[in-house]
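Our preliminary data section would be incomplete without showing what the modeling component actually yields. Below, a chain of 259 amino acids is followed by its predicted structure, encoded as tokens that our downstream tools consume directly.
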Amino acid sequence: MTPAAEVIRSLTEPGRRAGLVMDFDGVLAPIVDDPGASRPLDGAVEVLAELAERLTLVALVSGRPAAFLADRAPAPGVHLFGAYGVEHWVDGAVQVLPAVERWRPVVQGARDRLTEALGDVPGIHLEDKGLAVAVHWRRAHDPAAAERLATAAVADVCADTGLHREPGKMVAELRPPVEEDKGTALRRLVADHRLDVVAYAGDDRGDLPAFAAVIELGGHPLVVHGPDVAPEVAAIAGTAFDGPVDVLAWLRELARALR
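Predicted structure:
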């Protein structure tokens, strides 16, 4: 386990091109029952903007749409990547990798089928992400029963459409079956910005490819724990944080060190 202070020393070493890449939900914003109500902690956007002035790269890579990130975390200088890295917010518009864009009609059809199958089930919520659709059951009175219903419906749609299921905390997400994830996004960022060192912060199964990539690149995995953290995430030998409040405190320490 690498101490948080050691990661700060690594990112602030003179002459190094350093990058910090993070997930949004569960890292900068507390997990909430209603995905649409997710907000970063007070002060998080401001410290991100300060870090973006001093590090070679600061980026968010989230399963959320890039436009959502632009609305909730409008920090100048911070690169915003949505849909697990296939969307990039550039000059007020979303740029999408062509290999993914062609799947949009399929995703829309999947959303319609899931709405028909699950839209009236109490406690199950469908989130339209444009290039993905997520089925949440966090608000269900009987989460186990809701999970069984959601899993069955998602499996049927995946089998018929070829979409890929991405598991998460009380959520199943359908997205295009392309060889793109947070790991490939992280590798592109490291190469494009010619980084000497990078840290990645995440909290869920969707972050596992990025954790694998940052470890292989010799960087720093920043593992954010929570009450329902997946065992695979908790097992990563990185720098541990207790939640978004702990992450924000560390970001402020990093900003002070860079001053």
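The chain has a mean pLDDT of 95. DSSP finds ten helices and twelve strands in the chain. Preliminary results of this kind motivate Aim 1 of the renewal.
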